[in-house]
Amino acid sequence: MTDTNMTAMTQTAAAPAARATLPPPVRFRFWAWLWADKRALVSLAYLSVLVLAAIFAPVIAPYAPNKQNLMDLLAPPSGAHWLGTDDLGRDTLSRLIYGSYNALYAASLAVGIGVAIGVPLGVFIGFVGGWVDQVGSRIIDGVLAFPPLVLAVAVTGALGIGLTNAMIAVGFAFAPVLARTMRAQTLVVKNALYVEAATGFGASRLHLILRHILPNAIQPVIVEVTLMLAVALLAEAGLSFLSLGVQPPESSWGGMLARAYHYVEVAPEQMYAPGFAILFTALAFNTLGESIRVLLDPTIKRR
Amino acid sequence: MMYGVPGMVAQRLMQLVPVMIVATFVVFSLVYMMPGDPAMMIAGDYATAERIAEIRQIYGFDRPMLVQYFFWLGNALQGDLGHSLFSNESVLRLILSRLPHTVLLVLYALVLGAALGIPLGILAATRQGTTLDKIITSVASLGVAVPNFWLGIILVTLFSLGYRWFPATGAVSVFEKPLESLYYATLPAVALSTGVVAVLARQVRSALLEVLGSQYIRTLRAKGLGSGAILWKHGLRNVAATMLTIAGLQVNRLFSSAVIIEAVFAIPGVGNLISYSALNKDFPVVQGVALVLVLVVILTNLLVDVLNATFDPRVAAST
Amino acid sequence: MTTNLFGKIPDISRRSLLAGTVAAGGLALLPATARAQAPQPRSGGTLRAVMPFNPAALDPLTGRNNPDFNALLLMFDALIGFDPQTLELQPMLATSWKFTDPTTLVLELRQGVEFHDGTPFNAEAVVFHLQRCSTYDRSNVKSDLAVVDKVEATGPYQVSLKLKYPDATLPAILTDRAGLIVSPASVKAAAGGNVDRAPVGTGPFKFVEWQDNTLIKVVKNANYWGEKPYLDGVDMRIVNEFNTAVRTVTAGESDIVLNMSAQQMAVAKRDPKLIAEATPSMIYYTAFLNYGEGPLKDVRVRQAMNWALDRPVLNQVLWGGLGGGHCSMFPSGFWANDPATENYYKLDLDRAKSLLKAAGFAKGIEIATFTWADQAAVQRQEVLGAQLAEAGIRLKVTPAQPAQTMQYFLTEKKGQMLMTPTGGLPDPATAYDRQFSATAYRNAAKIELPGYRELMDASMNTFDNAKRKDVLHKMQRFVLENALHLPQFSSAGIIIRTPKVHGFNFSLLQRPRFHKVWMEA
């Protein structure tokens, strides 16, 4: 997995925030922040366009994405086909536009699974502590010791081939990262004075978790999640390349890239469009993630 | 209770055992759950149903999962990782013949990444806010976002098939022809290294900025020390730990990316081996590779910690 | 005229494959300079070959997949050989063979042949080998020799096989794995008789080493009984990714790459320094249908699917026009292929729709389909799906690893159809038997339709070639009329090489022998 951040960020994102005492509830003016942070502005604008493209693909796309024209295979870019056609004569631009839906779906699914498993797990073992924490942390360490893509390959093998399954596999690799961050945050918040005070007033455990721990511990996770969206996108491309994320005839950018690689010597230009789409989208998620991190972590902000 | 570096190493080695057991068990259950019957693959293109049933019995696929796992674990503890179900080759030999290729690739990428990433980070930090800083930071962002294998293919198209400067495929044994092996590994290592360059540049920059902005450095500067001397003597020494930690964490990521890069460049490494074996449901090989990779990753992190502790005794005391 | 990867191709549907493609595919791509001179064979040099599949084993009995033969035939000779173009049987380790009665096959063996380990090849060795085929627990060829009751040495160089019932396919089976004679001494010396990684045969090359999924290295057998090989040795590299494999030749890192597909042919054609050759192949692309239950139990639905395909287009788009766009299981010109029914089904959407309507699916039908997950398979499924959709047949596709698709469709009886390449067997009767007999693993329905058994038995116990051909032509018609499967096109054996490599012949079975291959200096 091209998860540059995945391991590094647990170190960098979690550590300073865990060190910091609880920040006051953030109340900030969204538009002012966005205007001040031009990179976040551009990223968010790009991502919004992408979401719109995904929603309105049938309106925007010049052709139906799966319409084959076997008389016009691997055509170079032209007026009729701005980005050329693929190996079955399908319009590459249209497939790229439709593919944005799958790209966003794939990335959200993987991160969603990671959050759904990782966050409750982290809070649970951090909150309960004791031997549960010991055992849980060992399991997390065990899974984290895997190079994530190796784990994803194995999980996809277990679940069966397909875009959804491949992304569940990636989510499975995300989960321990999030769990570890959540656990560390939970420990910090749990030990904070006012939680003890709340316990003293007889608040229920569930109430404690939902009202006090989760909102305060979730911030570094927001950063991680944004960065993970980029990682998931890149992982989708990688797994598709290894033929694990195939879901024909739907177009996904990773799938398009894998297919174009098949013809790279004949029609190299087919490699560029999906490659750059992945690159820019991953870049946008990363940039946004960094901006949110700066926003949430006062120690970085001051620099 | 031991203290200092040896104590830390001992403690960490103790922690290794449960992690290894969890890790191998996770892989074992995953491979076990995979649909697709290895017996069918062993039986071949024109198998009969009886032959498949017979193979299932010969190889013990009909036994319960836990029995199979503990059988494997027992053997593994004695250094016997079993044999590939398909090629019947010893798993240990398979791994040992392939690991050098992958390790070379990963180390090469790490060195390339450090050689490029650290100077870039320093440059950006010392020119904070300038156009150069902005360019470096932006390029670093690209480095994280680019799909490695896509870059690899573009590099091959340009430099192997276009200019013919580098071989397009394959690998040469690092023990037999060390120089040639580096030559072969260059393009894949470059493709792999972008992430390392990016992360190192970014982390070195921010760590250095933090150090340079600290009270301690300001005091030194007030005492009249030159900025060059401050940077080399105090700034870099203090971010060395950051660099090491980042590099250690990158190893895990590099082994990941190597899985695909090895497919692009036809490098007979462990990444290639595990994806090939996982798809073929070759339990013993997947298990063996997983075990070895986890071991490599954990030991790398241990090494990083030891190095950090050697530089800074406070680290050892804190574990 | 249609456009495809290879530019404009005038006529694709009716090229005579057997006579034409080697010339059309090979010569057309040959640079003019190379065509002008006809260099003479020369001894020496090590061939750097590449193939995309790692053999499962180099013991012919325990291996399993067709590409294994690229390596096996370097080191092993078969009892009976075959003509690479017609599959006509030829003497090899057996100089002659004869059915003395319908249940007795007598083989006369070649004298003065030695295994690579120096032990003699004789009747004793053959008896040991054939018994090992049936008794070794890891043997994958037990069913091939199920018909054999008893093997005896009836002379120092004569072996007699007593059969349980007449079987005309047996000589052809002796060209296959079961006939590749392994040195008995090597088996006896190996732990557990396992010679998977220590192959010792009588072939033109001797085994040196096998680095799993990386390299198989062999050197010339100076003591070879037949014409001496030209090459000093062969380094067979294994590169799993097809494009990467071709790149080894483009980048000058190898001399020849085997088992490619049409995409790689297009790549090679762009490079004037390379030669790409496509030769007819017994391997063909089809879809197995479960005609025992569900909607495909109705022959009209199966026929409708067959009428909905435009096979010349499939061949054109998916195999660059290099295969055969017809519905026979064999290449055009092959003796068991009946030219009268080779194009039994042509594109006829009206007919497909009316058949569907008659079967009660006027509004169309959905077919649960399994397919492989690699890019080429996905492409096949997309084109096929688009054609079937024109007739109202929608595919609901599940991609999976090859062995998984087999398990789902054949063992667990899920879905109605499995898209796969198949074939590549030396005898056509065996090809039918392994796909359509009730006992065949590949027959998901596990039933035989009325009329099948009579034809099958006749093809097994007819020894006269002309009569056998007649029976097999009837079988071809039976399979097509009953639409027992969904054949799409026959494939081609594709190799890419440098002009320096000469004398390579992939054969109809994609089982090449390298001993006549030579290289320019």
From TrEMBL, chain B:
<feature type="transmembrane region" description="Helical">
    <location>
        <begin position="135"/>
        <end position="161"/>
    </location>
</feature>
<protein>
    <submittedName>
        <fullName>Binding-protein-dependent transporter inner membrane component family protein 63</fullName>
    </submittedName>
</protein>
<feature type="transmembrane region" description="Helical">
    <location>
        <begin position="285"/>
        <end position="304"/>
    </location>
</feature>
<feature type="transmembrane region" description="Helical">
    <location>
        <begin position="12"/>
        <end position="34"/>
    </location>
</feature>
<dbReference type="InterPro" id="IPR000515">
    <property type="entry name" value="MetI-like"/>
</dbReference>
<comment type="similarity">
    <text>Belongs to the binding-protein-dependent transport system permease family.</text>
</comment>
<dbReference type="Pfam" id="PF19300">
    <property type="entry name" value="BPD_transp_1_N"/>
</dbReference>
<feature type="transmembrane region" description="Helical">
    <location>
        <begin position="102"/>
        <end position="123"/>
    </location>
</feature>
<dbReference type="GO" id="GO:0005886">
    <property type="term" value="C:plasma membrane"/>
</dbReference>
<keyword id="KW-0472">Membrane</keyword>
<keyword id="KW-0813">Transport</keyword>
<dbReference type="InterPro" id="IPR035906">
    <property type="entry name" value="MetI-like_sf"/>
</dbReference>
<dbReference type="GO" id="GO:0055085">
    <property type="term" value="P:transmembrane transport"/>
</dbReference>
<dbReference type="InterPro" id="IPR045621">
    <property type="entry name" value="BPD_transp_1_N"/>
</dbReference>
<dbReference type="Pfam" id="PF00528">
    <property type="entry name" value="BPD_transp_1"/>
</dbReference>
<keyword id="KW-1133">Transmembrane helix</keyword>
<keyword id="KW-1003">Cell membrane</keyword>
<keyword id="KW-0812">Transmembrane</keyword>
<feature type="transmembrane region" description="Helical">
    <location>
        <begin position="181"/>
        <end position="201"/>
    </location>
</feature>
<feature type="domain" description="ABC transmembrane type-1">
    <location>
        <begin position="99"/>
        <end position="304"/>
    </location>
</feature>
<feature type="transmembrane region" description="Helical">
    <location>
        <begin position="259"/>
        <end position="279"/>
    </location>
</feature>
